[in-house]
Design a protein that fits this description.
single chain, mainly alpha, ABC transporter involved in vitamin B12 uptake, BtuC, two-stranded antiparallel ribbon, 13 helices, ABC-type transporter, integral membrane subunit, membrane
């Protein structure tokens, strides 16, 4: 019998830890299905299931909301991980190239125009998110300062500023008692409108985007290197980066078109994934997706159960994400001093 090498033992440890996180996420999903404020604050017990309203709430309100939280958390984390690896920058998130700002402008524009349909808001948010990515990419080709990645960073900053200004104009002309409030709530993020229709409206495309990103996970380590190095090992860096950027952007814009702007998920969970599983993206990538689902699920459950009125999930992800971010950086600093 061959001896177990340290590498094999580490692989087994990572698989076991990854399976543990997956099981914990599924268990929390089942548990949080029975957490809410009806028929009374706390958990819904089997003795309450005879009430038809309880059954309706469980199956038509809480279950699609939990599934949307899991799906959105995984997608935002997958996109964040992809962006961080492509730009070799741990401070990058899905909205790095103006995607979030473009989506926010598109959603706000449809709200002000009063289309009366969430479908148009979703389509507009997705469209302008892609426009922001395209604008950043085109500007990066025209800039004459720095390398390819630096030019893309600079173009993203410019595009973000343009769409942020345009969003400000839309908010300025919005009707204060209705449209402006809708825009404000959308930008704070939330899953209070979750339904089976919303889940199914993005399920197929978002799952496809995650599958594509997952299939590229082994290339992400190579694409994080310099372009000449990536090319020397048989990759086409420009083509592969463009594919990954477009796929990550489509998945992100579709997600936030329903959930609103939810920050920090795509920034924090990739950090945690690499912290626990190392730099090998074959493990840290799926770990980030699972942790993203778990993180968003916990934040959403706290937001809808802690107070009589619902707390926007974007506020909770920002608060908890910033706290986790401080802890991670503090631990890294201590490790560096040791």
């Amino acid at each position: 019998m061959s001896a177990v090498t340290p590498y094999t033992a580490e692989q087994k440890r990572r698989r076991a830890l990854l399976s543990l996180f997956l099981v914990i996420t599924l268990m929390l999903s089942a548990l949080f299905l029975f957490a809410g404020r009806y028929p009374k604050p706390g958990f819904t017990f089997p003795s309450d299931w005879n009430d038809p309203m309880v059954t309706t709430i469980l199956l038509q309100v809480r279950l699609p909301r939990i599934l949307l939280a899991l799906l959105s958390g995984a997608m935002l984390s997958a996109s964040g991980f992809t962006f961080q690896m492509l730009f070799s920058n741990p401070l990058v998130e899905p909205g790095f190239l103006g995607v979030s700002q473009g989506s926010a402008f598109g959603a706000a524009l449809m709200i002000v125009l009063g289309t009366g349909s969430s479908v148009f808001v979703q389509l507009s948010a997705t469209l302008f998110g892609l426009v922001a990515l395209l604008a950043s990419y085109v500007l990066a080709q025209r800039f004459r300062f720095g390398g390819a990645l630096l030019r893309l960073v600079l173009s993203g900053i410019a595009v973000s500023a343009i769409f942020s200004s345009a969003l400000g104009v839309v908010k300025l002309v919005a009707e204060p008692t209705k449209d402006l409030q809708d825009i404000t709530f959308w930008m704070m993020g939330g899953l209070w409108n979750a339904s089976w229709n919303q889940v199914f409206s993005i399920l197929s495309i978002v799952v496809l985007c995650m599958a594509v990103l997952f299939s590229y996970r082994w290339k992400l380590n190579l694409l994080s290197l310099q372009e000449k190095t990536s090319f020397s090992v048989g990759l086409n860096p420009r083509r592969d980066r463009l594919i990954l950027l477009v796929v990550a952007t489509v998945g992100t814009t579709l997600t936030i078109s329903i959930t609103g702007l939810i920050g920090w998920v795509g920034l924090i969970t990739p950090h945690l994934g690499r912290k626990l599983f190392g730099s090998d993206s074959s493990f840290s990538f799926p770990a980030s997706m699972i942790l993203g689902s778990m993180f968003l699920l916990i934040c959403d459950t706290i937001g809808r159960t802690l107070l009589p009125t619902e707390i926007p999930i974007g506020l909770l992800t920002s608060f908890l994400g910033a706290f986790v971010f401080i802890v991670i950086l503090s631990l890294k600093h201590q490790e560096g001093k040791a």
